[in-house]
Amino acid sequence: MNLDATASERDAGATSDATQGLLAAIDLGSNSFRLEIGQVEQGRYRRVDYLKETVRLGAGLDASGLLTEEAMQRGLGCLAGFAQRLRGLSPLHVRAVATQTLREAKNRDAFLARARTVLGLPIEVISGREEARLIYAGVARLQPSDATRLVVDIGGRSTEMILGQRRTPLRAESFQVGCVSLSMKYFGDGRFTDSAFRAAQVAAGAELEEAIEPFASRHWQEALGASGTAGSVSQVLAANNVTDGLITPAGLRWCIEQCLRAGRIDRLSLAGLKEDRRAVFGGGLAILYTLSANFGIDELHPARGALRQGVIYDLQDRVTAMQDAEAGHDLRDDSVIALQQRFGVDAAQALRVQTLALNVYADFQPRVHPDTRAEVARELAWAAALHELGMMVSHHDHHRHSAYLLAHVDAAGFSQSQQRRLAALVLGQRGGLRKIEDALRDEVFAWQVMSLRLAVLLCHARSAPAAAAIRARRSGRTASVSYDAQWAADHPRSIYLLNEEKVMWERADGSLRLALPD
Fold first, then answer.
1. What is the β-pairing status of strands 44-54 and 32-41?
2. Beta bridge partners of 506
3. Rounded to an integer, what is the distance from CA 298 to the centroid of its chain?
């Protein structure tokens, strides 16, 4: 594959008329990588293109929790092909998400850095619950219903379960058991045996046991199976005239019997079973049978939507919100408000800091690519809104508590990657800069931190300075802040803090500098 689709080339390329309105989602799953390009018009979805490659990234996690070089190369090769197909699409209209394998991998940052170079786009690692929410969004939009539903998605290394009604997920959970991980552990020798199936079902049941009550059959009216595992079993059942594609306990028993008759994975030959599913078929069956037996699922209908369509609908909401705040809606704004309420944040102070931070940032006018400028400002706004989240834990070192909470809390709409960035911003709001010195090498991040720190400092008395009193500008990597003489005379503590802040930046080797009037 040709690897010439670099980030700089993609950013420089103009969006063609042929790609206007197109949105793309990349799903870096544990078994397969998928690219879907679609269009949402008046709420209706139209698929334009779909690419899938069996990468088995999840099978490349070694005993130490590290991705092997071989597995990484498989993933990078696939992403290079995706980059070619995405040429001409605006980066604002593409979102790449990664799931359980990259949630687990200890060397994920190294892989993500290489993947970004090849793909030309950042890849966001999403939490299990966020994955579940997006799966439900895809199913609910493409297969609408008024019924209360259970949606199940068995992936390579995780299984998501969502209880929802219409477009609203009522409960969403993710469990660390999937068709790849279970197949490797119980069918890794290539053999299908009765004892291996029983052991796999026990293991799946142990992982899913805590979900039995909240997802019991009395809570829902219909059950749907999304994505690869459910789809492959449905196709096998239909192709062999066992059912019309409906997944039933009897149908699952028939599939398991065929596996046992074959005896070995390489001898399994079933109509409708694709070659790339054969190695993980046993693990998927074990999970489906466990779900059927423990959750009273007598009929599992194959679902039309999946994670990638949920990502596209979510992306459509973000793009619309950026273009027209009144017409669009970004779920992340709702999550920020919910977190403020949950942790008792002083909303008035948060707004003061947020307003001043954005004004100072706008005055600095840092060098940011036009495609990411709005998102960078939104990140700063969210960090300012949540900078005192940790006050609920303790006033002492509240910035550290805020950073920890932001990095680990479930926040709908946010990826783990973006939450970690927000956590670093909030951690850097006060005190020494050494704790974020690696992140400060990113100049865009450094200007965000500078703006947030100045806003927190100038609002330290829980009041904001008059708009005309403070002036900020940028000259290269130096931030210049000036103020009226009268304001300085009236606010000696603020002047003291500004001078202390100047010293902090002088100690931060190779980062920005803060200049103040003599």
1. antiparallel
2. none
3. 32
Q: What is the tens place of the pLDDT at every residue in 453-503?
A: 999 999 999 999 988 889 999 999 999 999 988 999 999 999 999 999 999
Give me 271's structure tokens.
């109509």
**Pair 87, 117: CB distance under 8 Å:** no
User: CA-to-CA distance for 236 and 245, rounded, in angstroms?
Assistant: 8
Contact 357, 452 (CB under 8 A): yes
Tokens of 455: 């806003």
Cα 222 to Cα 150: distance, rounded to the nearest angstrom: 6
Residue 292: alpha-carbon gap to chain centroid: 29
Q: Looking at residue 16, what DSSP letter applies?
A: P
The strand pairing partners of 222, in sequence order, are: 149
Cα–Cα distance for residue pair 173/135, rounded to 1 Å: 11
- Residue 36: closest CA among 225, 275, 307, 412: 307
User: In degrees to the nearest 10, what's the CA dihedral of 178, 180, 185, 190?
Assistant: 140
Q: In which element (H, E) is residue 136 found?
A: helix 128-142
pLDDT at 1: 32
Cα(38)–Cα(308) distance, rounded to whole angstroms?
10
Q: Residue 223 half-sphere exposure, CB side, CA atoms within 13 Å?
A: 23
Terminal C-alpha separation, the chain: 59
What single letter denotes the amino acid at residue 195? Answer: S
Edge-to-edge order in the sheet of strand 32-41 = 44-54, 32-41, 23-28, 94-98, 123-125
